[in-house]
Give the backbone structure.
Amino acid sequence: MTAGKVFINNKWHEPASGETISVVDPSTGETFTKIARGTKPDVDKAVAAARAAFEGPWSRMAPHERGRLLNKLSEAILAHHEELSQIEARDTGKPMKQARADITVCARYFEFYAGACDKLHGDVIPFKEGYTILALREPHGVTGHIIPWNYPAQMFGRGVAPALAAGNCSVVKPAEDACLSHLRIAELMAEVGFPEGVINVVPGYGREAGAALAEHTGIDHMSFTGSTVTGANVGAAAAKNHIPTTMELGGKSPQVVFADADLDAALPVLANAIIQNAGQTCSAGSRLLVEQSHYEEVIEKLGARFGNLRVGSSQQDLDCGPLIRGGQLDRVLGFLKLAADANVKVAGKGSVDPAAPEGGFYVAPQLLRDVPPNHTLAQDEIFGPVIVAMPFKDEAEAIRMANGTAYGLNCGIWTRDGGRQMRLAKAIRSGQVYINDYGAGGGVELPFGGFKHSGHGREKGFEALYGFTAVKTVAIKHG
Ligand code: NAD
């Protein structure tokens, strides 16, 4: 892999700026490599390369041949599993076990969509006598992907695999904080035989390469994952070019525990839903709503679990890794200061392992109790290993509270009552609802996306393929 370059047409190129961005290991705070500071001229080149590939070899390739390439890539990712996991862990700070799981999921995306390439078909619509009506599913053309730093490899697979499977060619602007796995996977794509220009990766700052891609008149679809504020800017730029977008903008997802829940089954899931990836997960279960009668018991037991959680470097491979960067640590510490200022009680707190390297961006996971539902702590995405707990008195209040933020991405419901399970599943405005579980292991097959400020459009599963195609109606009058 070539440090400090952009990847266009299956080759490494110097960025037009001639400059690089330092890459910091979140476990140590030390710079260990550099990436290119891509800017508009690089994005222009990447979009032109993707357009040429789309109008050239990629659109002429039979769907099952595209599928074979995606399968080869999936196999190549698995063949380089440990190498990619080490890259991902160092780049993001995540514990090795999490990095390994992420690379497996990335390979699964390419495997799943490889199988879907030749199964994505349109419709024949019954109409008047003398007509045959076809609804064809066509790729948009060139897709832009702006990706965040929390799950680089997974999100590369989540966006690029369905886009290519549907017949598009892609330009990726990864996050400046963590994108090394993208660059290595792009290189693997060239090695397994993807034609030039099908995938292009331009690292750089959001305000430079990101903005240039978002505004580009040569892209036909934009997928963005990240903050609500940046998402609004990217969406506005795309609107000026009248292109469709998929926006995945995070959440403040509730885990709702009723008195009849199987608490032994729930406790490890409740904890994992917030500490996974140190809470830097769009779908983190970051609000805990518990039926009043069992509130103290749940808080006590979950608090004890939090007390045992340990934080350390990616190589120490403990329960939690560091946050991505100093700025993110400051942001999370800012929320914790707000909690202290409001006299919010800590019901359980993990610890940073004494052997964790100095200079890493570590914060101990915390369970905060009795947080007022309208407080910033209960409304805003903290994006750290902090869960806020609050009691509810009945089903109606649980629904109100679950729906009581600007977000609507994920939701977990813990109850043995079948009727209640379905009432809540229907009443809660959330892109995914889990009953007696949370996340279902990530499932690449399961449509995923938000209501409200969590965004729009759906990723994963067949829904993603539909999003990466436009329907063209062909009406044939044959008499
Ligand atoms: P961000 O939304 O600013 O960055 C996400 C991606 O957008 C990165 O690739 C970035 O380079 C790019 N970007 C930034 N500004 C851009 C612009 N003007 N035009 C085009 N692209 C641009 O997020 P962040 O600053 O890294 O993190 C801030 C907060 O966002 C976090 O604390 C968290 O709450 C949230 N976040 C959510 C997710 C998620 O998965 N939904 C991921 C990352 C961050």
In short: Residues 6-249+455-476 form a domain with the Aldehyde Dehydrogenase; Chain A, domain 1 fold (CATH 3.40.605.10). The chain has 15 helices and 22 strands. The first helix runs from residue 40 to 60.
